[in-house]
């Protein structure tokens, strides 16, 4: 019987260093900065066995997102224009907004549920989320689902 796969979305600070180094080694190989696995693993400071053990199980979030729908919840302060700023950021990265649902603000804070479609020409989704998190008045951004 085939093993069932489960997927998780983690912030970089929660990922063990060896896994981050595997991602970096893969990037070095794909970009042509390193010609072999040996070169890439030596450069990032991991063993080849660690690379081969994890290479098919970890990737940057945006690498496997194209053609997917991402649903996120954003908690934002009740300030005029803040929703517009979030939507503008999504548009700047080239993602297609599918649904928007904003709750009535309670104690000056509203919850926004936003579903976006990641298109082939969409920029780095990780950068888009980081950009949204950096907007003044945004309390947090959480990815609920990726289909």
Give a verbal description of the structure:
The chain has helices at residues 17-31, 37-44, 48-54, 82-92, 125-133; strands spanning 69-77, 96-102, 109-117, 138-146. By secondary structure, it is an alpha+beta fold. It folds into two domains: 12-59; 64-146, ACT domain (Alpha-Beta Plaits, 2-Layer Sandwich), CATH 3.30.70. Strands 2-3-1-4 form a four-stranded antiparallel β-sheet, covered by helices on one side. Helix 1 (17-31) crosses helix 2 (37-44). The radius of gyration is 18 Å and the shape is elongated. The mean pLDDT is 86.
Summarize the helices and strands and which ones pair or pack.
Blueprint lengths: L16 H15 L5 H8 L3 H7 L14 E9 L4 H11 L3 E7 L6 E9 L7 H9 L4 E9 L1
Antiparallel strand pairs: 1-3, 1-4, 2-3
């Amino acid at each position: 019987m085939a093993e069932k796969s489960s997927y998780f979305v983690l912030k970089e600070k929660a990922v063990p260093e060896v896994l981050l180094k595997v991602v970096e080694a893969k990037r070095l190989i794909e970009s042509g900065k390193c010609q072999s696995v040996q070169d890439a693993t030596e450069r990032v400071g991991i063993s080849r066995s660690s690379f081969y053990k994890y290479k098919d199980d970890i990737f940057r979030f945006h690498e496997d997102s194209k053609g997917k729908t991402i649903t996120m919840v954003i908690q934002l302060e009740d300030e005029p224009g803040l929703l517009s700023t979030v939507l503008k950021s999504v548009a700047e990265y080239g993602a297609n907004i599918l649904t928007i649902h904003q709750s009535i603000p309670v104690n000056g804070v509203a919850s926004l549920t936003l579903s976006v479609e990641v298109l082939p020409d969409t920029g780095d989704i990780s950068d888009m989320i980081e950009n949204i998190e950096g907007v003044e008045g945004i309390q947090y951004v959480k990815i609920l689902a990726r289909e």
